[in-house]
Amino acid sequence: MEGLEAVRILKRLESLWIKCPFEERPGQKEEYAQFLLKYDYKTMDKAIDISATQAKFFPTLAELTEAYISAQEQIRSNRESQSEQQMCYVCMNKGFISHKINVYEMADGRKAPLEYILYCTECEKGETFKYDGRNCKDHKTNYITEPVNKYFDIESLKAKNIFDYNNKPHEPVPMPVYVKQALREATRKMWVAS
Fold first, then answer.
1. N or C terminus: which one in the chain shows less Cβ crowding within 10 Å?
2. Is 88 exposed, middle or buried (0-12, 13-18, 19+ CB in 10 A)?
3. pLDDT tens digits, 59-78
């Protein structure tokens, strides 16, 4: 956090609680400012939102630290749930899949491969690769991108991609959010108990 951001946070703290100790203890405001400089502004702003709903009195540095940790966990779980919701196992979040067919016969009798893309019908990114030249206003063409489900069974393609994804050495399928939260809680309880 930068100095101006720390000042914004301090002003916010002063405005949220009726009794602010900064007037009574002159050096305390500087201590809070030094404390705030160590932390991320957006996360601390969220931590103050949490403190405002939980604390009756002006929060101590320890209470702000606890609120900051819970704000970090909320932000992390929001990111994880968004990444889980956005993962498309049909196209692996590309919006398309590459499809090869052997169509052109070469002079020696072998067939040459033709590779083209099929847009994904299961995710929003696939819409960006959808194209139909026949619907163009100015320059109509016969070129189109075809949907994945025209050539592939969606469920079997998903199953194959999940299997391939899990067998990569460093990239397992994301763990569900509720499992991660349970593991975090168990870890926290272990640290408190020891």
1. C
2. middle
3. 888 888 888 888 888 888 87
